[in-house]
Automatic annotation (TrEMBL):
Matches recorded under SUPFAM superfamilies: NAD(P)-binding Rossmann-fold domains
Species this chain originates from: Rhodococcus tibetensis
Phylogenetic placement of the source organism: Bacteria, Bacillati, Actinomycetota, Actinomycetes, Mycobacteriales
Keywords tagged on the record: Oxidoreductase
Matching PROSITE patterns: ADH_SHORT
UniProt protein name: 4-hydroxyphenyl-beta-hydroxyacyl-CoA dehydrogenase
Family annotation (PANTHER family): DEHYDROGENASES, SHORT CHAIN, SCP2 DOMAIN-CONTAINING PROTEIN
Length: 303
């Protein structure tokens, strides 16, 4: 796959998943703008990519504001002359249960994930439309946004919002040849190391370098590098007709998420009173209740 004619911005790409995306894009020939809040981390990422023969520059700034979004796009234009791909990966966590989550906890996470995705994509789309030859939006979501996750009101809400925006952008941008897709990666990172269910497997991986099949296959969790291929694919000309989709990738598993659909429907002339709903509930809806949270193999949850 040849991306040598592409220029990509990857937010939050100094380390972890973002760095894996940037390295894979560069390995396929794309020029990459690295973004991080730490100068040393960003410079190290650039050095790693250029040492491997790739092209990269750094823009050090916290994602969220329009000013940072403008700096990122300008960084691509100044260094490489154009912009073709915007990968919105930057994120933080402030995990707490609802009744302990502060306004600051909520606003910080939503500001980076949801607002940061919005501002960076808006700025990229302005440049794409000016250039007139399409573009690629790849927004990083999470299974937490699809299924919910305990202690992550802010994160789950932001990630669900990202997928909702992607569906809207797919409609708004199609005539301009700009695709918009979401990717929900599952990988061993600083964000997942603290999950008790995975902790023993991650600790063992640090010793052996490997994860067992139940984690790689059934859970679909692997290394950041395992999640990078879908980003390079969606950035490529091969994916020109794919838009408005949400992918899951991790370990040895690649999957496509469904969009929400009506699963049970009832009708009542004149509309529904509360009593009408109570009468219809056990007949039409009771056995169609959807579950919440991620589903994991019993072998893991029984421990």
């Amino acid at each position: 796959m040849d991306l040598s004619n592409k220029v990509a911005v990857v937010t939050g790409s100094g380390q972890g998943l973002g760095l894996a995306y940037a390295k894979d894009l560069a390995r396929h020939g794309a020029a990459v703008v690295i973004n991080d809040v730490n100068h040393a981390t960003a410079d190290a990422a650039v050095a790693e990519i250029t040492a491997a023969g790739g092209r990269a520059v750094a823009v050090v700034a916290p994602v969220g504001s329009t000013e940072t979004a403008q700096k990122l796009v300008a960084g691509a234009i100044d260094a490489f002359g154009r912009l073709d791909v915007m990968v919105t990966n930057a994120g933080i966590l402030r995990d707490k249960v609802l009744w302990k989550m502060t306004d600051e906890d909520f606003d910080a996470v939503v500001g980076v994930h949801l607002r940061g995705t919005f501002t960076c994509v808006r700025e990229a789309v302005l440049k794409f439309r000016e250039q007139g030859d399409g573009g690629r939006i790849i927004a990083i979501g999470s299974p937490a946004g699809q299924r919910g996750n305990f202690g992550q009101t802010n994160y789950s809400g932001a990630k669900a919002g990202i997928v909702g925006m992607v569906r809207t952008w797919a409609m708004e941008l199609q005539r301009a040849g700009i695709t918009a897709n979401a990717v929900c990666p599952v990988a061993v990172t600083a964000m997942t190391e603290t999950v008790p269910l995975f902790a023993p497997y991650i600790e063992k991986m640090k010793e052996t370098g490997e994860l067992p099949p139940i984690i790689r296959h059934e859970v679909g969790m692997g290394t950041p590098d395992d999640a990078a291929g879908i980003v390079s694919f969606l950035a490529s000309d091969e994916a020109a007709d794919i838009t408005g989709q949400t992918f899951s990738i991790g370990g040895d598993r690649l999957a496509l998420w469904s969009h929400p659909e009506l699963t049970a429907t009832a009708f009542h002339d004149g509309g529904f009173t509360a009593d009408d709903i109570a009468a219809q509930w056990p007949i039409v809806f009771a056995d169609r209740i959807e579950s919440v949270g991620e589903k994991f193999p019993e072998e893991l949850t029984a421990q």
